[in-house]
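Customer ticket, subject: "Can you confirm the structure for 2-oxoacid dehydrogenase acyltransferase catalytic domain-containing protein?"

Message body: Hello, I'm evaluating your service for our small team and ran a test protein. I'd like someone to confirm that this is what the system normally returns, since I don't have a reference to compare against.
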Amino acid sequence: GLNSPFEIAKLEKTLTEKGRDNKLTLVEMEGETIALSNLGAYDIDSFFGIVPPPASTILAVGNIIPTVLPQNGKAVVRKMVTLTLAVDNRVINEFYAAKFLSCITEQLSNPDKLTKEL
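Agent reply: Thanks for trying us out. I re-ran your input and got the following:
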């Protein structure tokens, strides 16, 4: 299974390339449960995605913004992003949606863990 955002990103890149070349198999096109929408690339800071059928979830990713934050009594600049998760409550309850979003936040807050997999 896919255990990290790195593995998911790698698979997403492969499937996107196959899709652009019209080489996706039926199995690769079935079973979508989550959609990803990145309007940050268009300088949109945050937005609410609408879950597209047949997905049950959409993760909306906003623009990455340099933000001044306090750290050990000093001001430091950190990259911040707004993630918004919308789910179909008939399929996924809020508890699991919150857990999923917390997991993504944890992974992004600790990039050293992600780069070890590279």
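A couple of notes from the result: The mean pLDDT is 87. The beta strands are 34-38, 57-61, 65-71, 74-80, 83-87. Feel free to reply with more questions.
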